[in-house]
Write a structure and sequence with these properties.
The protein has 8 helices and 13 strands. Strands 5-8-3-2-11 form a 5-stranded antiparallel β-sheet. By secondary structure, it is of the alpha+beta class. Helix 8 links the parallel strand 12 and strand 13.
Length: about 250
């Protein structure tokens, strides 16, 4: 059985690749968006382990585990929210293609784990940060009881992402303001009523070290990105730089 996904040190360099619409949203709202796991592009988020255990027969004859695990994982998919970064030391050509869409228009913001932790207003939320582990083999059903592994395990096909994942969760139980009692019990929250996205205010100037512009931007697009940044977040202008790549689509 493999250990838990590691917690990266505060000084670890991380990048977040943003398409133009997401970059504009970042500048306009000054917020970092955390997305509900259930609407993530990877449909096996959190449920990968259960799927693999089913496929290799580890749950044969253990229908009780399968049913309860499926219910638990579905709740996690609705109550857990993630913000995905890459832990690569340098910019990555393939990630420009993965995250910027067909236009390849956007940026990559460079920061560190510690800066993200420190310069986002978390409010009442507790934030976790782990390096995602990539594996396709699961044989021990006991691992289904490990929330950290469930949330931070992805298939080997995604290993090129070298993902560092920040996560928060919405409670599925609302505690009453008055003293808890039989007459004043906690109220269970319908997981289907939870928001799809949670926004956190952030100090962009302190959080972002560099803003790398996509190598596939034409000159007029490059000028547009700089003008937009200058108007909405002028303190980022001295942090902008052009990608080191030199190629065409």
């Amino acid at each position: 059985m493999l250990g838990n996904p590691p917690r990266p040190p505060n000084e670890k360099v991380i990048w977040r690749y943003l398409s133009l619409d997401k970059y504009l949203d970042l500048l306009l709202t000054k917020t970092i968006k955390f997305t509900q796991v259930g609407i993530a592009a990877d449909q096996l988020e959190i449920s990968l382990m259960l799927k693999r255990l089913e496929q290799n027969g580890s749950l044969d004859g253990r229908e009780n585990i399968l049913e309860s695990a499926s219910h638990f994982i579905n709740l996690l998919r609705k109550s857990q929210y993630i913000s995905c970064w890459t832990g690569k030391e340098h910019e990555c050509r393939s990630l420009w293609f993965s995250y910027l869409g067909e236009s390849r228009l956007g940026v990559a913001i460079k920061s560190t784990v510690g800066q993200v932790r420190e310069h986002i207003a978390w409010g009442d939320y507790g934030v976790n940060c782990n390096e995602v582990i990539y594996r396709d083999t699961f044989e021990n059903a006991e691992e289904l009881q490990n929330n950290i592994k469930l949330l931070n395990s992805k298939a080997l096909a995604y290993s090129s992402e070298s993902e560092v994942r920040f996560s928060v969760n919405e409670s599925l139980m609302h505690l009453p303001e008055a003293e808890l009692s039989a007459a004043n019990p906690p109220v269970q929250i319908d997981p289907n009523s939870l928001p799809k996205v949670i926004s956190f205010d952030s100090d962009l100037q302190s959080m972002i070290n560099e803003v790398w512009i996509s190598p596939y931007c034409q000159e007029w697009q490059l000028d547009m990105l700089k003008n937009v940044t200058d108007n909405l977040a002028p303190y980022l202008m001295n942090k902008m730089k052009r990608s080191d790549l030199n190629e065409r689509i």
